[in-house]
Amino acid sequence: MTERDLTDPEYYLNRELSELAFQERVLREGTDDRNPPLERLRFLAFFTKNTDEFFMKRVGGLKQQIDAGVTKTTPDGRTAKEQWVEVLDTARPLFAQQSEYWQSVLKPTLADEGIEICTPEELSEGDQEQLRTHFEESILPTLTPLAFDPAHPFPFISNLSLSLAVLSSDESDEPTFTRIKIPPNQPRFISVSDEADRYVLIEDLIECNLDLLLPDLDIRDVSKFKVTRNAEVRRNEEVAEDLVDMVEEVIEQRRFATVVRLEVDADMPDGSLAILKDQLGVDDREVFHREGPIDFEDCFELIDINRPDLKSPAWSPKPHPRLGSLASDTGDEMRSIFDEIKNGDILAHHPYHSFEGTVQRFLNAAATDPDVLAVKAAIYRTASDSKVIQSLINAAENGKQVAVMVELKARFDEKNNLEWVRQLEEEGIHVAYGTVGLKTHTKTALVVRQEDDGVQLYSHVGTGNYHSGTAKGYSDLGLLTADRDIGFDLTKVFNFFTGPTLDDRFRKLLIAPVTMRERFTEMVKREAEHARAGRRARIVVKINGLEDPSMVEELYRASTAGVEIDLIVRDICRLRPGIEGLSENITVHSIVGRFLEHARIFYFENGGSPEWYIGSADWMTRNLDYRVEAVTPVEDTQLREQLRFILEASLTDNRRRWVMQSDGTYEPVSSDDDPVRDIQELLMAATEAALDHGYGPGMVVDTDLIEEALLVEEVTETETAARPEESDEAPPDADEKQAHSDGGDVSVFEAYPDRWYRPDSETYEWAVRTAAGERRYFKTRDGARNRLQTEYE
C-alpha cells in the first residue's frame, strides 16, 4: 500500500464543527421522548448553557483571528473566516430546532401534566391583577429604562443579558428606542398562584405592564433580545507584573468585549434591529431570529419543581463501601481512612460515590489528624461555598503546613478563584496562582503524615474538579493511594508550583507538559509493534476530547498496523474512523446521559501485559503541551476490574451511545429487540449492589453484562483455552487461503472453523474465540484473520 500523507486535511475533522456536533447530541436528548418531560427540559437548558459558552470562547476566538488577519489553516484545511461562516450556518438550524420543539411539543406536554407557561393575556382578570400588583411592588423598582436618542448615548449591553427593545413615541413621529434589562436577580418564571404550577415569564410580565414603567407613551413595539460577547480576552502573562491584577483586568475587559452573537425575537421590526446591529457592530450572519423564549438556561428553575413523575428517577451518591463505616469526621475514627488507604488503593467514582464521603472526607481527615504534617492541593474549579477550601483553612489553623495551587485562569471561574485566593492568603496559607504560559489543570492532593514507621505520603489523583456541586452531575474518577512513588511524583509537581522549574523525571505519573505526550505516544506505537509481531494489541481510551493532530496520526498508524482501537470521546474528535486502509480498525463512540461523562481512562493491552491509567488530561494539544496535568497508573487488580466494567459496559451501551461515521456525523445505537443497556443505569446498580454487599469494592461487577474482555491481569502461558462454541458459518472465499505449518494451502478460517463466528451485531461483523476463552470482535475480515493467526498460527 502506498504510504499515505497523514497531514492531508481530508483525514481530519474540524474542531469547532465537532463540538457543535456534540451540542446537537445534547439537543437530541432534549427532544427524545424516551426521557421524561422535565429531563428533556434540562437538556434544552444545558444546550443553551453550552452553546453560550461555545460562542463566547470558540466563536469569539475565531472573530479575533479574523480581525487580526490570521490566514493559517487548521489541520482540516479551513481558515478562521471559513470556520466562522460554517459554525454560524451549522448552529442556526439547531437553535430553530430547540425553539420549535419547545413551542410545539414540550410546552404543550408540560401543560397536559399541569405545568403551564402562560402569557399574562391568557390569565383571568383576577390573576392579571394579582400579577400587576406583584410587578408594581417587586419588579418595577428594579427596572431602569435606558433611552437612546440625541440626548442619551446607546446603553451598554452586558454579556448574556436578556433585554427588551421598546420603540415608543410621544407627540413626535420619530420613535425612541429604549432598552430595558431583565433583572437577573429576579426569578425568570413568576408563579401565577400558590395552588398550581402556572407561571409567566418575567419578560412577558414586564411587557404587559409597560404603561407603569413608561407612562404617557405610545408603545409601538416591544421585542426581546440577548447579546453574547467574546470571552477570549487575554493579556500577555510574561509582561504582567502581577497575575492577580492581570486576571482582574481580563474579567473587566470581558464585560466590554466584542459582540459575537445577537439573538432577537423572530418578529423584531427592522427599526429596532437596525439600531442594535449598528450600535453593537454585528452583521446579518451574527443575528439569530428566535421563536418563543430566547434564553432557555433559566429553565433550570422549573426542573426543581416537586414532580418526580416527570423526571428521571432520583439518584443520591452512595458511600464507598470501604469508607462508609467511618462514622465521624473527628477523633481517632478519622485516622482509619489513612489506614484503609494504606491497606489498598481506593477508586472513587462520582456521582455514584459521594464526593463528601470520599475526597472531602480525605481532606477533612488531613485537616484534623494530629499526625498529619502537611497538606497540598491543586484547585482548578471549586464550589462558591467550598468545603474543600474550608478543610484547607482548618488544616492551617491546626498547625499543618498548607500549600494550595489555585488556577486563576480557569475560564469563567476567575472571579470565584480570586476570592478564594484572598481568603486563603488571609489565613496565612501559601498560595500559588499559576504558571507563566501554562494552566494548571491537574486535580491532585497530597497529604504528608508522620507514622510509626516514618513519614507516609497519601495521594489523590482525580479526573474531576474539587467541586462538590459538579461531583453530583459529572462522572469522574479519583484514586486514593499510599503508593510512595506516586507520592514522590506529586511532591515534585507541587514543588514546581512554588519553585522555579518542573522536573522531567517521574516514577509513575505521566505529567504534562514534560512526559505525558512522549509516554502516550510511546504506548500507542508499542501497540502497533505488538500487532505487527502478532502479539495481543488493543487500545481503548475514554476522554472528553481528541483534538491533537499528532495523536490522531499515531492512532491512524496503529490502526493500519492492525490494532483494534475503541475511542469513547464525549465531544471534540478530529479523527475520522472507518477510512479503508487507514482507520477501519477504529471506532469512535460518544455517550450522552443524565451525568456529564468527564472521566478519562486509558487502556493499552501491551502484548498481554495490560496497562491502565486515569487522570485529568484529554488528548488535546492544550492538555499535552500547555497545561500541567497528571495521569496515574491503576495497578490494583480489583480496581482494574472496575475500570474494565466501565469501559466494556460503555462499548455495549445501546441507550446513550452514539457511533461516529467517517464523515463526522453520529448515529445513535439502538437496542432494537435487545434489552436496554444504559451505562449510567448499570453503574448506579453496580454501586448500590456494592453497598448492599458491605465492606469491599466500590462496585459489584456483573460479568454477565460484559460481552468482550479487556485484560486486567497479565496473560501467562499457563492459561488454558476454553472450548469455543461451534460455528455454522461457511468458510470465507478461497482468496483467504494461506500456507500453514503443515504445508497445506488452506484458509485460516477453514483451519480453525470452531474458533470464529459471525455475531449478531450492528457494529461487528466477525467474532474470534481466543486461546484464553475470550471473545474478540472485529469490524473487518482482515482483523478477524489477523487475530486467528496471532492466536493459533
Would you write up a description of this structure?
Keywords: ATP-binding, Kinase, Magnesium, Metal-binding, Nucleotide-binding, Phosphoprotein, Transferase. Mg(2+) binds at residues 381, 411. This protein has 793 residues and is α+β, with helices and mostly antiparallel strands. It has 4 domains: 9-310, polyphosphate kinase like; 335-498, Endonuclease Chain A (Endonuclease, Chain A, 2-Layer Sandwich); 538-693, 2-Layer Sandwich (Endonuclease, Chain A), CATH 3.30.870; 746-792, no CATH class. Helices cover 35% and strands 21% of the residues. The protein has 21 helices and 32 strands. Strands 14, 18, 19, 20, 21, 23, 24, 25, 26 and 27 form a 10-stranded mixed beta sheet that branches. A hairpin with a 5-residue loop joins strand 5 (189-191) and strand 6. Helix 2 (37-67) runs antiparallel to helix 3 (80-112). The two termini are 24 Å apart. Residues 235-241, 327-335 and 717-745 have low confidence and may be disordered.
Gross morphology is globular
- The fraction of residues assigned to DSSP E strands is 15-25%
- Contiguous helical run count: 21
The helix content, as a percent range, equals: 25-40%
What oligomeric state do these chains adopt?
A: single chain
Task: Please write the CATH class name of the largest domain.
Answer: Alpha Beta
Low-confidence stretches: 235-241, 327-335, 717-745
| Mean pLDDT over all positions | 88
What's the gyration radius in Å? 29 Å
How far from one another are the termini? 24 Å
The total of beta strands comes to 32
**CATH architecture heading of the largest domain:** 2-Layer Sandwich
Number of domains: 4
CATH homologous superfamily descriptor of the largest domain: Polyphosphate kinase middle domain
CATH topology of the largest domain: polyphosphate kinase like
Provide the structure class.
Answer: alpha+beta
The biggest sheet amounts to: 10 strands, mixed
Enzyme class: transferase
Protein name: Polyphosphate kinase
Pfam families: PP_kinase (PF02503), PP_kinase_C (PF13090), PP_kinase_C_1 (PF17941), PP_kinase_N (PF13089)
Organism: Halorubrum xinjiangense
